[in-house]
């Protein structure tokens, strides 16, 4: 039995991690959970899994850092949206815990800092995102020097065929209804703007050590191919499965083993089409903003990440309309003066700078 801590246990990913653990009860003991608020969901989790420690986000980042630092913790799932768990992730690395990463903003905001810590403490990170899990699996047994490019697939969100004028009429309920995946409100909004895919491009850049120009995005509405790797000889490896987050979660938690899963598997005979198209970056510019921020480097990716956090928060509170989100991110992309080789403190300070510019 491995002792695991779940940061973000009541969120969409956290609940599915617990579902996988529930399906394989002899593999992991849940010794700690952290959640944003005290809810009936959290109460149920406490009753069922009986963790030794429970932390609420309102207790502060230091409490999260303390939770992941206990000597009896083996593995840590990072599934809190945004950068709330950034300090706790670095602390878990320092304490040589195995990291299961679902929160892409951690790498977006502090990729070089996180990678430096991984090299220093020589611990393993396994991605929980379906796209990055697919890339990780496609690269098994391959020489990275033979990789021509990574192809991240994207459902395109609920508005992939809409025009700019149509997007002005978008309602919040439409944004939160993703056509393929079950997800929380923050990632649902990011998927609709394609900012989520932009963040995944940056995450892949840091995870797999490839330059941004070797990372491509293709719209794939069916959500069956989760990502691909093209090699120098023209061969393309793709990973196919049902669009179910529990599958990449199970792969990570049991890596390198592949136990049977109790859920429905993909039936190839049922698939009528596998279609692809290039993303429309004129209508959905957030994807391009991520590439631009990554090329600038320093704290620029952190700045657009914080701008997005603030913009999404404002949208969910009905303070701005959907089309305002990319405008806010563009403003920060144009005005932020990046700090290069920043410390964690300076990265976190960027959020206040961004908030001041958006007042």
What's the layout of helices and strands?
Layout: E1 2-7, H1 12-23, E2 28-35, H2 40-49, E3 53-56, H3 61-69, E4 75-78, H4 86-94, E5 98-101, H5 104-121, E6 125-127, H6 130-138, E7 147-154, H7 164-167, H8 172-175, H9 185-193, H10 195-208, E8 215-219, E9 225-231, E10 236-240, H11 246-254, H12 286-296, H13 300-316, H14 324-335, H15 344-357
CATH class category label of the largest domain: Mainly Alpha
Task: Summarize the biggest pleated sheet.
Answer: 6 strands, parallel
State the share of residues found in helices, binned by percent.
40-55%
What's the name of the CATH homologous superfamily of the largest domain? Answer: RNA polymerase sigma factor, region 2, helix turn helix motif
Structure description:
The protein folds into two domains: 2-102, 3-Layer(aba) Sandwich (Rossmann fold); 132-357, RNA polymerase sigma factor, region 2, helix turn helix motif (Rna Polymerase Sigma Factor, Chain: A, Orthogonal Bundle), CATH 1.10.1740. 43% of the residues are buried. Helix 4 links the parallel strand 4 and strand 5 (98-101). Helix content is 45%, strand content 15%. It contains 15 helices and ten strands. The model has no long low-confidence stretch (mean pLDDT 95). The protein has helices at residues 12-23, 40-49, 61-69, 86-94, 104-121, 130-138, 164-167, 172-175, 185-193, 195-208, 246-254, 286-296, 300-316, 324-335, 344-357, and strands at residues 2-7, 28-35, 53-56, 75-78, 98-101, 125-127, 147-154, 215-219, 225-231, 236-240. The chain has 359 residues and is an alpha/beta fold. The strands form two sheets. The protein has a six-stranded parallel beta sheet with strand order 3-2-1-4-5-6, with helices on both faces. A four-stranded mixed beta sheet has the order 8-7-9-10, with helices on one face.
């Amino acid at each position: 039995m491995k002792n695991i801590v779940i940061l973000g246990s009541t969120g969409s990913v956290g609940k599915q991690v617990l579902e996988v653990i529930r399906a394989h009860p002899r593999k992991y003991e849940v010794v700690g959970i952290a959640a944003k608020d005290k809810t009936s969901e959290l109460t149920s989790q406490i009753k069922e899994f009986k963790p030794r420690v429970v932390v609420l986000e309102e207790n502060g980042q230091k409490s999260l850092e303390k939770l992941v630092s206990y000597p009896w913790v083996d593995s840590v799932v990072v599934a809190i949206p945004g950068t709330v768990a950034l300090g706790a992730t670095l602390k878990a690395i320092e304490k040589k815990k195995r990291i299961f990463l679902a929160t892409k903003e951690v790498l977006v905001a502090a990729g070089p800092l996180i990678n430096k810590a991984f090299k220093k403490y020589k611990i393993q990170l396994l991605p929980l995102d379906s796209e990055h899990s697919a890339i990780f699996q496609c690269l098994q047994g391959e020489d990275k020097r033979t990789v021509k490019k990574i192809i991240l697939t994207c459902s395109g969100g609920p508005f992939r065929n809409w025009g700019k004028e149509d997007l002005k009429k978008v309602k919040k309920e439409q944004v939160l209804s993703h056509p393929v995946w079950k997800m929380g409100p923050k990632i649902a909004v990011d998927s609709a703007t394609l900012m989520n895919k932009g963040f995944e491009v940056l995450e892949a850049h840091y995870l797999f050590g490839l330059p941004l120009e070797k990372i491509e995005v293709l719209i794939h509405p069916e959500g069956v191919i989760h990502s691909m790797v093209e090699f120098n000889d023209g061969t393309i490896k793709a990973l196919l499965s049902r669009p179910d987050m529990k599958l990449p979660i199970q792969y990570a938690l049991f890596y390198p083993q592949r136990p049977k899963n109790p859920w429905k598997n993909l039936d190839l005979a049922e698939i009528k089409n596998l279609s692809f198209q290039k993303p429309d970056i004129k209508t959905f510019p957030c994807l391009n903003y991520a590439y631009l921020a990554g090329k600038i480097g320093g704290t620029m990716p952190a700045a657009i990440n914080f701008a997005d956090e603030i913009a999404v928060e404002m949208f969910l509170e009905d303070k701005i309309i959907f089309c305002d989100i990319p405008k806010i991110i563009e403003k920060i992309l144009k005005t932020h003066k990046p700090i290069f080789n920043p410390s964690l403190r300076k990265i976190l300070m960027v959020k206040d700078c961004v908030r001041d510019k958006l007042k």
